[in-house]
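User: Show me a protein chain along with its predicted structure.
Assistant: Here is one chain, sequence first, then structure tokens.
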Amino acid sequence: MIKILMVGMGGFAGSICRYIISDLSHKLFNDPFFPYGTITVNVIGCLFIGLLGGLSETRQIFTPEIRALILIGFLGGFTTFSTFGYEIFTVARDGQFVAALTNLILHLILGFGSVWLGFSMSKLL
């Protein structure tokens, strides 16, 4: 139960940070035709999940609860893209290159396809 609460608290904080940073990025770049906010939070999230995930694995500096708070909760609320990137990295690092590439391709195709399908369905309602 404690891990669940830690994930929830981290997700709350990560979502707020995502909103703030995304909003600041949109204002800074002032371009309505490119999602600068999304790419900014995704790149920052990937950088931090790589750094903190690496520290967690190599130096065991986080308890399971703190790992849940930061890696799953905060970065999950900040951007799920960071988790996506980290999972593909770890699978590839472990020598499962076909599985990593399959995961990457499936996420891109099924994710984009699902957005298109959902948007198309919304026109029918």
